[in-house]
Structure formats: C-alpha cells, structure tokens
Amino acid sequence: MKLSHRITHLTPSGSDGWEVFYKARRMKAEGQPVTELTIGEHDIRTAAPILDAMHAAAKSGHTGYAMVPGTDALRDAVADRIAARTAVPTTRDNILITPGGQAALFAAHHAVLDQGDRALYIDPYYATYPGTIRGVGGDPVAVPARADTGFQPKAADIAANAEGAKSLLINTPNNPTGAVYARDTLDGIAQVCIDHDITLISDEVYDTQVWDGTHISPRALPGMADRTLVVGSMSKSHAMTGSRVGWVCGPAEAISHMINLATHTTYGVPGYIQDAALFALNQGPVLEDEVAAPFRRRRAVTEALLSGQNTVKASPTQGAMYAMLDIRSTGMTGNDFANALLDAHLIATMPGESFGQAGAGHVRVAMTIDDDSYATAMRTLIDFAAMQAT
C-alpha cells in the first residue's frame, strides 16, 4: 500500500518522544515494579457520581447519534463556564464539543491553516503539537522558551518568527514546564498576533490547576476575542481522561465551519458521555478543587525536597500536574538521565528532549502517584542525580 506523505511524516524524525514511557511499560509488563512518573493520568479515577450519571444517561437511551456540535445543554454549560471565568460574552454558538482536547487541537488548526502554511508553537511543547500541525498540512515552527526565564515565552522571539505565520499555539498552565503565563507575557503574545494577523490557539486544559499566579485566557485580552480559539477539556479538570470530551471556543463563524469538519470526521461525542460531562460541570468548583488537590500537595512536596540540595533544580512549578527538573549539573542529557534512572531504580520519567530542544537537560515528572510513593521516588531521583554529579 502506498501511504500518504502526510501520515508517514507526522513524526519525521521517527520518534514520537515516548520511548522511555514505552520501555517502562514493557518492563512493568514483565513484572518489574516500575514507578511511573511519566504520563499525565490522575491516580484517582473519575468520580463515582459522574459515572453514575453516565450510566443513567446510557440506560435512559442516550446512546444513539448525538448532535454533532454537542448537546445544547452541554454547549450552554461550557459557554457559561467560560463567560464566568473570562467576562467575555459566550454562547453555545461559540462552542464545539469534541472527542477530547486533542481533537479540538486538530479542528482548530484545520480551521486556520492551508497546505504549507507556517504555524508557530512554543518549545517545550506537549508531544503531539508538531504532529497535529503536520496532520493538517501545516509547517510547524518551534519558538523556544528558555529555562532561565521560567519558560515564559518572549514576544520578541515570537515576532522574529512571525513573518508569514498563520497561527500560534500556546499552552498555559503549561505541560511540560508547569509555567503559568504572566499577564505581561500574554500581552506581548497578543500584540504579536495583532501586528502580524495571526490566529492564537490557546490550549487551556489545565486551567483548574494553578498553584501560583492567575490563569488568564488570552481570549479576554483587548482585540483577541475574534482571533483566538480556546481548547478545553474535561480530562484534567474532572479526571475524565478516558471519556474523551473537550471543546473549542471561538468566533461563531469559525465554530460553524468546525462543526462541518466534525460532521466529516468524528461525527460528534456520545450523548451519554456528554450528559456525564454536563453533570460534572454542574458540580462547580468544589469537584474541580478536589481533583486538583493531590497535585497541589505534591507540588509542595517537590519544592520541600528540592530546597535541601543544589544538584536538581526546578523551574517554577506554577500550575499543571508536572515538575520540570533541571539535571544539567549531572552532565547528562535528559534522555540519558531518564534511561539510567529507570535502569538503576525502576523510576520512569520523561526526558525533557521529548518535549523539544528547549527542554534538553531536563526531565519531566508527573505528580500522579500517591503522596508517599511520590516523595520516595523524588528522594531517589535527587540522590541518583547527586551521585552522577560527583
């Protein structure tokens, strides 16, 4: 079979960045007691009342084709949530419900990119970003954010790459770095988008996990509501990763065309899952805070353990469920360190290089195991790094 260039070049280097994760899973399948600090998967499961709502919706018959844009009730609830958080008027016409945040990213880039269009994204980045851009025919261009600035992207760096660009993808709170973009950072990004007529695609799936600072949606900044597409999801905020329900929020005209795209691709999200998502959103901030609480605790554990040594340094972990650890004092790459730690101590982390060259010399840990096990694993990682640095 002759395959398309587009599908065979989603990851042209041949690596999708997940080699250490796959290695750890193979070792675990062989019976080795691997501690996984790799994937952003909650150690708690979806709350039982949400599953009860999903079951009740399925049993009541909401198992046929659902409305492709999403049910009116869920679109209204998402719109109300966004309006309340941003003070930007938002209605169901601004919302498309998607099968998770990844489908929302794909739809958003499809909406604004033609074949060969230049599409910017910030490095370090979530591993699927460049492949998503290639998947819609765009030309992905990384703009580095540097560790010495807390991985806050600089407007000047974006502007230097903006000529001819059609889109810019950002993520705050950020995976993998934990950075929450400051107001001046976002003001600079917004100005570049306005000056160069760039559509901003803002991945905000971690908006309920903010430990320091304030999450600001760039859609709320002056002049940005009509040039911003916001990606959201129930995965991280409500521990509904496997349910695959997310959304795009944007101008009504763009959303109408993305609804047409959904008709020709996903054909919507199962109705009983949408009903469960609606139930979850209606629980309000109490449930969101409950889901976020373990990561807030483990972030404090991380800071306490790192404060007593100088070998491993952390970027400011302001949000999300990860810590980006600087291990350059060991003289090792992130890839080498992650593999050596896994081999020596059966602790799996993600190399910083999995998320781009700006993450080189780092490893990302996911704070996604119970508190005591997490603290033990972090102590071992720190001790291992100290041994490598001597």
UniProtKB/TrEMBL annotation:
Q: Which InterPro entries match?
A: Aminotransferase_I/II_large, AspAT/PAT-like, NHTrfase_class1_PyrdxlP-BS, PyrdxlP-dep_Trfase, PyrdxlP-dep_Trfase_major
Q: What class of enzyme is it?
A: transferase
The record's keywords, sorted A to Z, are: Aminotransferase, Pyridoxal phosphate, Pyruvate, Transferase
Q: Which cofactor does it need?
A: pyridoxal 5'-phosphate
Gene Ontology annotations of biological process type? amino acid metabolic process
Which GO MF terms does the UniProt record name?
A: L-aspartate:2-oxoglutarate aminotransferase activity; pyridoxal phosphate binding
User: What is the protein name stated in its UniProt record?
Assistant: Aminotransferase
Q: Which gene encodes it?
A: aruH
